[in-house]
Sequence to fold (251 residues):
Amino acid sequence: MPLIEAGFSNEGKADSQRLLHYGPTTQVIVCSFDIPDKIEELKSETVFALIDTGASQSMIDSQLATKLGLVPVDKAMVAGVGGPREHTMYLTRIVCLALETEQYGKFLAADLKDGDQAHEVLLGRDFLSNIIMIYDGIRAQVTLASPNKTK
Amino acid sequence: MISNIVNVLSVFYTMHMSDLLKKEIHAFEQMKPTLLKHHMGKFVIIHDEKLVGAYDTFDAAAKEAIKQFGKGPYLIREVGSEPSKNLPASVAYRIVHASN
Fold:
């Protein structure tokens, strides 16, 4: 089954400080929901994603949504520490090649880059519903596996 | 210089799309009693403040909306389902600046 490390290493050794600072991180491709007939016309971006067990749903960065020309299809109120705020939802596809998984549908956009976040995607518990994740804080290792895929 | 102009235009475009989407949402709210009566649990497309169709799955609705209206905007929403959403704790509570 596809298996990846979502922690950090420095010269072959696990980097606990960076794991503490950034959280479990992997790379994903963000693109439009519909795949054009000519694949070279597909606008996509490879970005860092935070595996965020605190998020019920995956989210993308607002600037990234604009840059890729994603289609806005809904708005939703989201509760945060500053009170409820309206966010736009975009038709999106998030692909994790290493895990051979993808999510598609409508995703909330949040101002991650404007808020100086290092990540442009938050992979929430909807992403994790098909994934095994082992967070070994002692060894500073995070392992993700998608058992429904064979490799 | 050119990138600045592109950035400003994209901001205006996003605001324009957002305003149009608000109109579709307003239309959805107006139609809600009828939608709840006839299309409960279906995924509906609202475009130009009119009901385009009701579909069994989000996928089917999205594919049809893209086929008919391309970049939109249009509203796709499940009738009778308005889940609450919470901003992830990692974003909400992250320390941006702290003094020693």
User: Anything to note?
Assistant: DSSP finds three helices and twelve strands in chain A. Chain A has a mean pLDDT of 88. The interface with chain B takes residues 23, 33-34, 50, 52, 54-57, 59, 66-67, 69, 71-81, 88, 91, 105-106, 108, 110, 112, 115-117, 122, 124 of chain A (CB under 8 Å).
